[in-house]
Amino acid sequence: MTGSEASPSFRLAYVPGVTPAKWVRIWNERLPGIPLDLVQVPAAEAAGVLRDGGADAGLLRLPTDRTDLSAIPLYTETTVVVVPKDHLVAAVDEVSAGELADEIVLHPLDDTLDWERPPGRPAFERPATTADAVELVAAGVGLLVVPQSLARLHHRRDLTYRPVTDAPQSRVALSWREDRTTDMVDDFIGIVRGRTVNSTRGRRPAAQEEPKAKRPERGGARQKPAGGGTGGGGSPRRGSGASRGGRRGKPRRRS
Question: Coil, helix or strand for 193?
Answer without folding.
Answer: coil
